Amino acid sequence: MAVTESVPGGPHGEAPAGPEAILGRQSARESSARTYARALPIVPVRARGLTIEGADGRRYLDCLSGAGTLALGHNHPVVLEAVRRVLDSGAPLSVLDLATPVKDAFVTELFHTLPPGLAGRARVQFCSPAGTDAVEAALKLVRAATGRTGILAFTGAYHGMTAGALAASGGARDVQVARLPYPQDYRCPFGVGGPLGAELAARWTESLLDDPKSGVPLPAGMIVEPVQGEGGVIPAPDDWLRRIRRLTAQWSIPLIADEIQTGVGRTGAFWAVDHSGVTPDVMVLSKAIGGSLPLAVVVYRDDLDVWRPGAHAGTFRGNQLAMAAGTATLAHVRENNLAERAADLGRRMLTQLREYVGDLACVGEVRGRGLMLGLELVEPEADGEHRAGARPADPSGLRSGQASAPAPGQASGSASGPAFSPASAPVPRPANPELAAAVQRACLQRGLIVELGGRHDAVVRLLPPLTISDEQAAAVLDRLTDAVAAVARDHASGPPRGRRQHRSA
């Protein structure tokens, strides 16, 4: 039987092609595990740069960017040209792990961007095409290299959807994975935030490793995101990350940096570890390195390369189109200083977001680094109640435990300042995922695509392409702030007070 006969509806038995019909068939046919399609009921048919056009003719500004995959936006000319060259050359498109000129060019460009301490002695393993495959390979690698089995990971982490990657992520339970506190300000696990909170998180890790009765054997490796993405856009303080690097080196624990979402200029440096000057032993890379096509690799120090032939493989690790697109993307980001551009524009966007919506009662915190930005939506406080996340006034004008106020999107400094006391603890409001979902819907109505994340899916996330212009950034902020203000007005607590008026969209 012909396929068209199995889905009747058109004049010749073909399926109706309108967006509502397509969405209806998706709902009827696809798994209940689908996610983005539920919150974003659109049917993209064309895209370029920041803009997506739906089958209904509506245009959207895409600040989801394939969950961070599209460093250069949709269908960038350098990516399209690179793919066309491979297609027109007659080269094989899938070659397992055979050497090809396309692969050689990709590895050369990739190594050119690596942290200096790793680039000179790196090895690369091509995995199956998803980032979670790279995480699995990295965990297998450090276990083989050390002869140990346990893994240290962090609360709030997200490393993928396969069994090993999930075990190291925040929502799983695995006896082989010990979870450590990840420092953050608004929901600090120690109730203090700032440098003091980061210092306490580092001491916790140090104590766990140093205490023979901690119940955690010496692990095979530690995996960390320099900025937690799915965890709610939480940048790791640079001093804390350097402290973690020293501890792992002291105990001969390979440090794995998960740069799947943070890499290729996203955070304002080519790799997010570059902010702190940390050189990890292993890096897991995917998303943007494929230039919008599926590609994942593990890059690691050569003395860890103890694998035997075939110890880790994957049928689709030789995707030539992805390697060509990835080479073009890496080179374009590097040659055009797009990481520096992301740092500058990200700081300005973060400052403006704080100015426009930061004092709304339903906004707990505005945070980010580079072009990874997030707004956490919370339950507004009642009249006369302490402001969400605020600390009592300090004579120095700084928050308790802070030596100096960090620049927007940048990590805090060293742990100096007054000792913690209960009166100085932050008072974060309960997360409100319903408000965040309402903001996402309001953004879509205004032609803006955003993602949700965070511990309770209460963080509205922005991941625009690095090629976004100043004018486009202003349009994104206009639509987002208008959506947040509208949702705040509709909330039962009534319209916010004392807010700077946003620019009209």
Automatic annotation (TrEMBL):
Pathway note: Amine and polyamine biosynthesis; ectoine biosynthesis; L-ectoine from L-aspartate 4-semialdehyde: step 1/3
Skewed-composition ranges (Low complexity): 400-424
Region (Disordered): 383-428
Keywords, alphabetical: Aminotransferase, Pyridoxal phosphate, Transferase
GO molecular function, one term: diaminobutyrate-2-oxoglutarate transaminase activity
Cofactor(s) in the UniProt record: pyridoxal 5'-phosphate
SUPFAM superfamilies, A to Z: PLP-dependent transferases
The protein's enzyme class: transferase
Superkingdom: Bacteria
Keyword Disulfide bond annotated: no
CDD domains, alphabetized: OAT_like
Family annotation (NCBIfam families): dat
Name of protein: Diaminobutyrate--2-oxoglutarate transaminase
